[in-house]
Amino acid sequence: MPDLGRGQSRITIVSMKVALGVSGGIAAYKAAELVRLLQDHGVRVQVIMTRAAQEFVRPLTFAALSGEKVITDLFGEGAQEPNIESAVEHIAVAQTIDALVVAPATADIIAKFANGLAGDFLSTLFVATTAPVVVAPAMNVNMWENTATQENIQKLRARGVHVVEPDSGYLACGMVGAGRLAANETIVKAVLEALGAVQDLTGETVLITAGPTREPIDPVRYIGNRSSGKMGFALAEAALRRGAKVVLVSGPTALKPPSAAEVIQVQTAREMRDAVFANLERATVVIKAAAVADFTVKNCSDTKIKRSGALQLELEPTPDILKEVAAHKGHRIVVGFAAETHDTLENARKKLQSKSLDAIVLNDVSQPGIGFDSERNAVTILTATESIEVPEMSKWEVAHRVLDVIVKSRAQRGVSAR
Ligand code: CTP
Question: Could you read off the pLDDT of 190-206 as tens digits, one per residue?
Fold first, then answer.
């Protein structure tokens, strides 16, 4: 992943178009620089301003910077009578953009998006477009932390919107806390990732395991765990966007897999192991995000066990798939996950070494609100030489930070994927 900071390497995209929605907050002025930064990557920018945004910055500023007419109204700026051309403009824009980015996104526009309201151009465009959407919120800390805002953000994330977390610090209102618009470089990075413009995994075949496994007790009961598969699915989607082929071996989840991934559904740890080994030969990268059951029931019953007194189950260990994969590693980059509740760093380091991994993603699952069945995660990525803290963010963003480490490992090894 190229560093998109100033003076760093740059990705140039030819003929991609991004709609930049600017909603009404003090940070609206920062969107002017965002236009320039996106253009630096060869992206055409169509600016859309809400009415409130126009109280902070004049549309002329954005028109001059973008070189395009700024859309300020659902029915055309200053139109006495709505005409058919302006009335369907949101559909035309919706069909021609490669991504929609909203920066700054106020609590109001986030609420509209989350509830499908379509009373102005920007919210109508959001409902009408099928392009990826990136939202960068900026507001007062209490507004950001308000339950309604957080629930709206969760809804958007669950629907695949990429939320660029606001930074913490001094806010325009004089308070200190989370709510400051993320750095423009961070927003640009998220847009390029959403556009699929970062193609640094081309040539790689990434084998990803996701979700829980279920170990049957009898035909109706099983031993399972709280994994939702969201982290593994986010990794699959992010890797596809970055040019990789993806084989996704998934335990039972309620998630819709990315359509471009080759998906193999499994139930048990044994089935997951067999699916992994059936596809290992062609894999150049293996990421084991699955929460594999450590034990399976030895005396699994073929018929439903009746409730008659205490039940004794004999458990036996499942195969350690990751360890076996690492033993057949070859040129592959192998990444594991470690779900820990105590002595987290120490335990993860042990797994990194004992399973001969290139990297391990440490999840402290004792922290509430992140990890299991959450849209968000906070992890530490350990390699032999580095310890990278990834603060709480969406699983989509965490996925990209994991992929960054894989790309770096590949470059350091100086060996091609094949
Ligand atoms: N893993 C695996 N096969 C297993 C158990 C775990 O491939 N039977 C993988 C997981 O997918 C994860 C890594 O090993 O990438 C670590 O899983 P975790 O449950 O944290 O650790 P374990 O090795 O099972 O050790 P323990 O449960 O004792 O902490």
Answer: 999 999 888 999 999 99
Q: Is 173 a catalytic residue?
A: yes
- Whether residues 302 and 251 fall in one domain: yes
Domain-embedded: residue 407: yes
- Tell whether 263 is covered by a domain: yes
Contacts within 8 Å (CB) and 24+ apart, 123-127: 124/74, 124/90, 125/19, 125/21, 125/48, 125/90, 125/93, 125/94, 125/100, 126/21, 126/100, 126/102
Q: Which domain holds residue 57?
A: 16-194
- The tokens of 25 are what? 């907050």
Average pLDDT on 322-340 reads: 95
Total of domains in the chain: 2
Residues 177 and 294 grouped into a single domain = no
Ligand 1 pocket at CB < 6 A = 269, 288, 290, 292, 294, 318, 320-322, 336-339, 351
Which of 194, 222, 251 is the endpoint of a domain? 194
Output the residue whose Cα is nearest ligand 1's atom 21: 338
Residue 76 scores a pLDDT above 70: no
Segment 293-318 mean pLDDT:
94
Is the same domain home to 232 and 356? yes
Q: Is the pLDDT of residue 81 over 70?
A: no
- Tell whether 251 and 386 lie within a shared domain: yes
Give residue 75's pLDDT: 74
- The answer to whether residue 228 sits within a structural domain is yes
Residues 184 and 211 grouped into a single domain:
no
* Global pTM value: 0.84
Residue 222 pairs with which residues in a beta bridge? 216
177, amino acid identity = G
CA torsion through residues 281, 282, 285, 291, sign: negative
Domain end, chosen from 194, 225, 260, is at 194
What is the dihedral sign for C-alpha 282, 286, 288, 293? positive
> 326 C-alpha to center of ligand 1: Å?
13
- Determine the residue of 226, 249, 322 to mutate for testing ligand 1's pocket, defined as the one with the most ligand atoms within 8 A of the Cβ atom: 322
Average pLDDT along the chain: 91
The 10s digit of each residue's pLDDT in 246-297 is 999 999 999 999 999 999 999 999 999 999 999 999 999 999 999 999 999 9
